[in-house]
Each structure stands twice: as C-alpha cells, then as structure tokens.
Amino acid sequence: MSNPTTGQAERQEGESYEVRLGGHLDPRWAARLDIPGLTHESDGTTMLRATGMDQAALHGLLQRVRDLGLTLISVIRVGNAADDALN
Fold it and tell me: What's the burial of 30, exposed, middle or buried (CB within 10 Å: 0-12/13-18/19+)?
C-alpha cells in the first residue's frame, strides 16, 4: 500500500463544511442533525457549520437531511479542522 500524502492525512482529521438548507429551521434541529448550531440567513435559508467531519460523517449528515425531507441547497468545503483551530 502507498503512504498517504500530506493532503490526504489532513482530510482524515476532519474538514469544515457549510451546508445550506431551504427555509428557516427551528434551532432544535441542530441536535437532530448532530451539529453545534445553525444560522438563519436573510435569504430565507438556514446555514449549518459542520466542523471536524470526515467524508463518512459528512455523508451521514447529508443522509439525515434527506431522511428528514429537508431541502439541500448547497454544500461548500471551507477548510480543515486544523485550519479552523488556528483561526
């Protein structure tokens, strides 16, 4: 097997994502989606900030969004957990 490159090693520690959903969700949805919190945006959407997630955890979050019938608008990678710790 080959050794992972530096980029692959960083991804294993977890990344940060912004997930935008349609509508303004009640704050209690944060616990149901297993995230620290959510933000209501002025355009009528809800932004979830998911930090320290590997690909499996991100897919789990997206499956919960789907299973709850929520409207997924976008998913954007905003950095890795190590970058977030420095900011």
Answer: middle
How far, CA to CA in Å, does 47 sit from each of 2, 41, 69?
38, 7, 16
- Supply φ then ψ for residue 30, to 5 degrees: -60, -45
Q: Would you give the DSSP letter of residue 4?
A: P
**Token reading at 78:** 């905003």
In angstroms, rounded to a whole number, what is the distance separating the alpha carbons of residues 44 and 20? Answer: 10
28-77 residue pLDDT tens: 989 888 888 899 999 999 999 988 889 999 999 999 999 999 999 999 99
Q: Is 45 left (phi over 0), alpha (psi -120 to 50) or beta?
A: beta
Q: Considering only CA atoms, which of 9, 5, 30 is closest in space to residue 82?
A: 9
Task: Compute the distance between CA of residue 53 and CA of residue 47 in angstroms, rounded to an integer.
Answer: 16
